[in-house]
Design goal:
Strand 4 (about 100-105), helix 6 (about 110-115) and strand 5 form a beta-alpha-beta unit. The chain folds into two domains: about 5-15 and about 80-210, 3-Layer(aba) Sandwich (Rossmann fold); about 20-75. Helix 3 (about 50-60) packs across helix 4 (about 65-75). It is built from eight helices and eight strands. The protein has a six-stranded parallel sheet, sandwiched between helices. The two termini are about 15 Å apart. The chain is α/β, with parallel strands linked by helices.
């Protein structure tokens, strides 16, 4: 079995369950801005996009102001970001094993502070490459390549864990093995080129010869 020196993680839908807190406020935005009633199934694909790309895809007239209102609705939503069951124990065990860990996400830094730092998961991350850190975003490989640069690692030394086709495509373009996080129960469409399929966070440990 291939030995990895580091694990890089997507955040939303991988480390943290943030679907409801992001998408129900987006449905509110769509109703206010477009006068349309949509369902969660209609918008869940936007979990894989940056916030401003969502505004662009929806054709929002004043994207900057509307995006800021969406962020406010997200932070007011009663159900906040929560780690998936078994995630904290997995991150802790990998840290004990000496496996380096980092986050690569399209999340903005201010929201990282609320979601990741607020849940204490930042303490496991050596670095975090976020929306502001690169000009291009997933499925472009630049965020992953920036993480490799910061950690002084080569593509064949790391594993990227994510849950969307854009995560998979970014990993493939960067020459990094991809592990599909199947535990969030959301179908974003076909995820190709997965070297590993993980049914629960603890399955990661088996890749490092550790007990689940």
């Amino acid at each position: 079995m291939k030995t990895y020196q580091a694990v890089l993680y997507d955040i939303d839908g991988t480390l943290l369950n943030t679907v409801n807190m992001n998408m129900y406020p987006l449905l509110r935005i769509i109703k206010e801005e477009l006068g349309e009633e949509r369902t969660l199934a209609d918008v869940v694909k936007f979990m894989a996009y940056t916030g401003m790309k969502v505004m662009d895809e929806l054709g929002i007239q004043d994207p900057e102001a509307t995006y800021q209102r969406w962020v406010r609705y997200v932070n007011e939503y009663p159900e906040g970001a929560t780690p998936y069951p078994g995630m904290v124990d997995t991150l802790e065990r990998l840290q004990q094993l000496g496996v380096r860990q980092a986050a690569v996400s399209s999340k903005m830094r201010a929201q990282y502070q609320i979601d990741m730092v607020g849940n204490g998961l930042d303490r496991y991350m050596e670095t975090a490459v976020l929306e502001e850190d690169t000009q291009l975003h997933k499925p472009n490989p630049d965020p992953l390549l920036e993480c490799l640069r910061r950690m002084d690692l080569k593509p064949d030394q790391v594993l990227y864990v994510g849950d969307t086709p854009s995560d998979s495509k970014a990993a493939q373009a960067a020459g990094i093995d991809f592990a599909y996080a199947a535990w969030n129960g959301v179908d974003y469409g076909s995820v190709d080129h997965a070297a590993h399929i993980l049914e629960k966070p603890g399955d990661l440990l088996s890749l490092f010869h550790a007990e689940n």
